[in-house]
Structure prediction request, 180 residues.
Amino acid sequence: MSFDLRVYPPSGPATLDEVYRLAEADEEAPSDEERPPPAPEMAGFLAELERGWPSFEDDFEASPWSSWPLWQPISGGGTELNIRWPHAGTMLAAILEIAARTNVIVFDPQSGQVFLPSRVAADAGGGSAASRQEAARRAGEGMNFAAQVKRELGLSAKGEPSRLAGIRLPTGYQACSVIR
Prediction:
């Protein structure tokens, strides 16, 4: 069992409904279907992850990954990342930081949140003032990032390891809590 994240290019899903539609498409797709190589944004994102953390084949103890290679294509031009649970908190923060720089979208199925880079969130808000206000409202619903990571890992607010202390939502990211 692993801590899983789905990562999509900027043109990918902006809502939880869109993510679920893509997941359903993956379940219905033949397993032998050939998938294209990653788009430039995804390739840059994956290259940065591969430079930063070794594969489990190279260094099992140091590697946060429970699957390799990191390019595990999914519908929508994305990939699914599988992270070993002891590394989940630190890797989530690092992945969101890299994703913000490379302008990709991250979906955390454990919390049901879609993390959009600010530019993508602005585009998803559309042109109307009402839709921009709605996007801002949803972004404001995001909870404190350290508390979110603790909740996702099933940790209590008291007496937890300091490895989760000080984790903050990376600059340039908006946490969009999607109404179910």
Notes: Residues 88-102 form the longest helix (15 residues). The chain is about 40% helix and 15% strand. The radius of gyration is 16 Å.
